[in-house]
Amino acid sequence: METEISIKNLRKKYSNGTEALKGVDLEIQKGQLFALLGPNGAGKSTLVKIMTTLIRKDSGDFSIGNINPEKNFAKIQHYIGVASQENELDPSEKVEELLRFQGRLFGLSKKQAIQRADELIDQFQLSGERTKKTEALSGGNKRRLHCALSLVHRPCVLFLDEPTVGMDPLARATFWKVISDLNRQGKVTVLLTTQYLEEADKYASEMALIIDGEIHFSGSVVSFKNKVNPGLSLSLEDSYLQYVQQLVKTENTKED
Description:
Blueprint: E1 3-13, E2 19-29, E3 33-37, H1 44-51, E4 59-64, H2 73-79, E5 80-83, H3 95-105, H4 110-123, H5 139-149, E6 157-161, H6 169-185, E7 189-193, H7 197-203, E8 206-211, E9 214-220, H8 221-228, H9 236-255
Parallel strand pairs: 3-7, 3-8, 5-6, 6-7
Antiparallel strand pairs: 1-2, 1-4, 8-9
């Protein structure tokens, strides 16, 4: 398979000197739906922000689609789509207007932008919200709109950072139908961070576990579950909890 995302010895420190990333190495293949898992503060969002050019690394190298994002900013912005944790939406803009404007920013004609906005409103089931200002949307609908905006330009790689926070079960099901279809039919590579481990278990084929800025596991979801509990058919959530709890126990024993 062709490598889509390559990360080598990536390091980043917080402003207080604490290491957020401690030499991360990771490879994600083209067309994968890849889950980046770990506790809060483990370095997931920091890694995503570096790859999407929101913050700069301290050292190491990374590429996306053979593009160096730090040297080819304009090119990488058309290659990737990003739905970050923050719903950064203009509160005075209406849903359809915002989607159309996004299309125009990415070079679509007026007609193409209108058509693309209509497609995404239909896909994410936002028809009842299309003429509402974003400030009037529920938290779940804001998340759906935010994800729709990340897809306007039909990216090759999609970064989803905690995408379904605030969505009700029906909205989550709608969202995952869109994303899984894009991944399977459109061959869009997806990198997902989530604390909803049942989502990663159901939709992701590959995963990495990052804890305290270090990769502890990288491989298939199935192989992780087998590694933690050989021969048992436990869920990813059960396996994850068991692994992390054992790791904490081991670290506490070392300190004692």
